[in-house]
DNA sequence: CTAATAGTGTCTCTCAGACAGTATTCT
DNA sequence: AGAATACTGTCTGAGAGACACTATTAG
C-alpha cells in the first residue's frame, strides 16, 4: 500500500466460520438459522461483523464461535480460508468477509447461542448438492472449506481432531473416507498410519462392536505435519484445462 | 454473518501484491519505494487502498499492478494469498489488507508507475533474511507468498509461467531450483517432466549457449494441475510439534 | 462351529534418486 | 581433439495397492 492522497472508502468487515465435524460417518457443517434480515430464516454459516474497530480478526472468529454455536472456542484451531469480497454479495452494502475453517471432534448437538435463532449440524453433501440453500455466497465458502480440509488431511495430522481424544485406527480411517469421499483399504491404511512417524501413539485396548476382535486404542501423536504425507488416490479426472 | 443490531465498525481495506519473477536464476519480488508517510522512502509491496466502495478486490489488485508497476495486468494470474488484519499493523488506523500472489515470466525492469516513487525487483533472499527491511508486515507477507509459490509449483504447471512462452527443460528446471532453493538432478528432472502428462509440449529446436548440444524447445501444455505432482524433496526437518 | 472385525505378511508395480553412458554442438 | 551441455538407459530401494492369511472376540 502506498498512497492515501484521497479518502479511501471504508467497508464492513465480517468473519464467517466453516466448522466441520463427523457424525455417523458423514461430514457435517455447522449452520445457523438467520434471525434477522436479510435472508431471515435461511441457513447460513455462523459469523458476524467485527464488534470493535480494534478487534482482531481471529479473536472475532473465536467470539462468534462461542456466541453463535456455544462451542468451546479455545479447543478449536481456526485456519484462515480466504476472503470473500465481491460487491453485491450482501444486499446491505459492501461487506467483505474473512472465512475461517475449523475441524472439530464429534461434538454434542450445539444449543442455540445468544445470537442465532438456531444452530445445527447439516451434512455437507446436502449443501454442496444445492439441496439445502444457504444465504449469501455461503455455499461457495463451504465448498472451499471442504476442499481445504481434504488437502489438509493429506499433510497434517488434523484428522485426529475429528476423533475424540482416544480412537481406533478404523475410526481414523472413517475420517479419511468421509472427508475424501472414497473408500480406503483397511489393511493398507493400517500399515500406512502405523509407520507414519509420530502420527498416532498407542494407549490400551477396548472392545467396541458387539462382534469382532477388539481394536487397539490410540491418541494423537506429537507430529502436526505428516511426512510422508497421506496420499489421496488420484481422481478419475479428465484433462483439466488451464 | 447473522446480526447487525448494532453499528458495525468500518475498516479500511487495502490490497497488497506479491509478484514473483526469476532473474539471473534467482527469485525476485517486486517492491516499490513508498512516496508518502508512513514508512516514506522504505521498500514495500505494491498495493493500495480500495478506490471506490464498490470496487472488486481482484479488480483493485489488477489496477494497482498496472498503476504501480506498469505491468500488463491481464496476463498475470492473481491468486489470493490471505488476509492480514492485525490491529496495529498500520499506524494510520485499522487497515485490513488482502494479499495476492502473482507469478510472472521474466519481465523488463519496470518503469516507475504513476503512484510509486520507484519500483524494482529485489531478490527474495535479501527480504527474507531481513537484510532489506520492508514497511508494515510486508516481510511476513512475502514469506507467505514464497511458501505458497513453493507448494503451488508442486501441484500446478505454474512454473511455466516463470519462463517465456517458449523454453528449454533446463530453463524450467532452473525455475524449480530457484523457487525451492535446492539443486535438482537434470537427468531425473528431464524424465519426470517429460512423462508428466500435458505439462509441456515440444515445438522445435534452438542452439542456446555458446557451447554444448542445442536444447529442444517446449511450450506450456494443456494441463494446469499436475498429476502426479512434482515432489519437492524432504526437508531435513526435525520433529515438528503441534 | 460361524460371523465379524482387527491386524500381519507378502507380492507386484511404479516411481524417485543415483549415475554411467551417448549425442551434438562449440572452439 | 576436448570441453560443455543435452539427452538416454539402467539399476536400486521405498512405498502404494492388492489381497491371502492369521488373531480375537461374540453368539
Describe the structure.
- Two copies of one chain form a homodimer.
- With 242 residues, the first copy, chain A, is α+β, with helices and mostly antiparallel strands.
- Chain A folds into two domains: 12-153, Nucleoside Triphosphate Pyrophosphohydrolase, CATH 3.90.79.10; 156-240, Arc Repressor Mutant, subunit A (Orthogonal Bundle).
- Helix content of chain A is 26%, strand content 26%.
- Chain A has six helices and nine strands, in the order E-E-E-E-H-E-E-E-H-H-H-H-H-E-E.
- Chain A has helices at residues 57-69, 124-128, 138-155, 159-162, 169-180, 186-195; strands spanning 10-23, 26-33, 43-44, 47-49, 78-84, 95-103, 118-123, 200-206, 215-220.
- In chain A, strands 1, 2, 3, 4, 5, 6 and 7 form a seven-stranded mixed beta sheet that branches. Chain A has a two-stranded antiparallel ribbon with strand order 8-9.
- In chain A, strand 8 (200-206) and strand 9 (215-220) form a beta hairpin.
- The radius of gyration of chain A is 20 Å and the shape is elongated.
- The relative contact order of chain A is 0.16.
- Residues 237-242 of chain A have low confidence and may be disordered.
- The interface between A and B is large, with 65 and 65 residues.
- The first copy, chain A, binds a DNA duplex (27 and 27 nucleotides) through helix 6.
Summarize the structure in short.
The structure is a homodimer of 242-residue chains. Chain A has 242 residues and is an alpha+beta fold.
Amino acid at each position: 500500500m502506498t498512497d492515501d492522497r484521497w479518502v479511501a472508502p471504508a467497508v464492513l468487515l465480517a468473519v464467517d466460520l466453516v466448522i466441520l465435524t463427523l457424525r455417523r460417518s458423514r461430514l457435517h457443517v455447522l449452520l445457523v438459522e438467520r434471525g434477522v434480515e436479510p435472508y431471515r430464516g435461511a441457513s447460513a454459516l455462523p459469523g458476524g461483523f467485527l464488534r470493535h474497530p480494534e478487534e482482531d480478526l481471529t479473536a472475532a472468529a473465536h467470539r462468534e464461535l462461542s456466541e453463535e454455536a456455544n462451542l468451546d472456542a479455545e479447543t478449536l484451531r481456526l485456519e484462515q480460508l480466504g476472503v470473500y469480497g465481491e460487491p453485491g454479495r450482501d444486499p446491505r452494502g459492501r461487506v467483505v468477509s474473512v472465512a475461517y475453517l475449523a475441524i472439530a471432534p464429534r461434538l454434542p448437538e450445539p444449543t442455540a447461542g445468544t445470537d442465532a435463532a438456531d444452530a445445527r449440524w447439516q451434512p455437507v453433501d446436502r449443501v454442496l448438492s444445492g439441496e439445502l440453500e444457504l444465504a449469501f455466497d455461503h455455499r461457495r465458502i463451504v465448498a472451499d472449506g471442504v476442499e481445504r480440509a481434504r488437502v489438509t488431511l493429506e499433510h497434517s495430522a488434523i484428522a485426529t481432531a475429528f476423533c475424540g481424544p482416544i480412537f481406533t485406527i478404523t475410526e481414523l480411517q472413517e475420517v479419511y473416507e468421509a472427508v475424501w469421499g472414497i473408500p480406503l483399504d483397511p489393511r493398507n491404511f493400517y500399515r500406512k498410519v502405523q509407520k507414519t512417524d509420530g502420527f498416532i501413539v498407542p494407549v490400551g485396548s477396548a472392545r467396541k462392536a458387539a462382534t469382532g476382535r477388539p481394536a487397539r486404542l490410540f491418541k494423537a501423536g506429537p507430529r502436526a505435519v505428516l511426512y510422508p504425507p497421506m496420499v489421496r488416490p488420484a481422481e478419475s479426472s479428465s484433462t483439466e484445462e488451464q
